[in-house]
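2024-03-11 09:14:02 INFO worker-7 job=invfold-0412 stage=load source=structure_tokens
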């Protein structure tokens, strides 16, 4: 099993998180292949930082992961994703435990699959996978709310229909009915956008919180198991 290695920028951030101020002596963090947690603890001792604080800082960095750019539709969030580096690859039993965490965390049964070195669990547009990387293993979580995208484009269509219908009714010599026709389609367009404006921010926050909780469970499981196995 490949042990998690931290790149230069990650090492700097961990050392900063583990101290109350900036760490000025960064001469130890230039190894191109990255540093393991044990390497960081050893460096921490050399510069007077408690290894426990190093481990806590590394855990915070790991769980936070890398949040990809939020996918948006007309400025509203419709796609959320996160990538978290794992301490190591899960065993078959640990993968089964993680699937249980996914199911309880997202309230869905989902389907688990394995392909080559990648394991995946998915439910609709919600996908979670454990993937091999050059530095070890990573947990990728992503979801897309495609019904919100459809609703936005329905609003655009209804808005276009409002304009076209109003113009046609007016051209037919019935301007008094143009307002009613345009208002009907315009109201449908407005409803579509307002519905998304009201629900999408809460949906995005909920998914981000769920992803963070699932990532925390995965980190705790693989970190604690590796530490107990090492002891």
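2024-03-11 09:14:09 INFO worker-7 stage=emit residues=231
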């Amino acid at each position: 099993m490949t042990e998690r290695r931290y790149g230069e920028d990650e090492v700097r951030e961990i050392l900063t998180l583990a101290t109350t101020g900036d760490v000025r002596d960064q001469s130890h963090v230039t190894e191109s292949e990255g540093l393991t947690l044990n390497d960081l603890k050893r460096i921490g001792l050399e510069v007077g930082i408690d290894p426990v604080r190093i481990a806590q800082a590394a855990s915070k960095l790991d769980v936070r992961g890398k949040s990809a750019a939020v996918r948006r539709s007309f400025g509203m969030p419709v796609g959320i994703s996160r990538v978290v580096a794992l301490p190591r690859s899960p065993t078959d039993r640990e993968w089964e435990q993680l699937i249980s965490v996914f199911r309880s965390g997202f309230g869905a049964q989902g389907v688990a699959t394995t392909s080559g070195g990648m394991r995946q669990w998915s439910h609709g547009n919600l996908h979670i996978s454990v993937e091999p990387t050059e530095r070890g293993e990573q947990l990728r979580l992503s979801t897309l709310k495609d019904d919100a995208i459809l609703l936005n484009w329905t609003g655009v269509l209804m808005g276009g229909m409002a304009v076209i219908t109003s113009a046609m009714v007016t051209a037919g010599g019935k301007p008094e009915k143009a307002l009613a026709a345009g208002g009907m389609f315009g109201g449908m367009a407005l409803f579509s956008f307002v519905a998304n404006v009201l629900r999408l921010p809460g949906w995005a926050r909920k998914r981000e919180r769920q992803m963070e909780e699932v990532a925390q469970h995965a980190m705790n499981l693989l970190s604690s198991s590796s530490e107990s196995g090492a002891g």
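2024-03-11 09:14:09 INFO worker-7 stage=report msg="The chain has a mean pLDDT of 81."
2024-03-11 09:14:10 INFO worker-7 job finished
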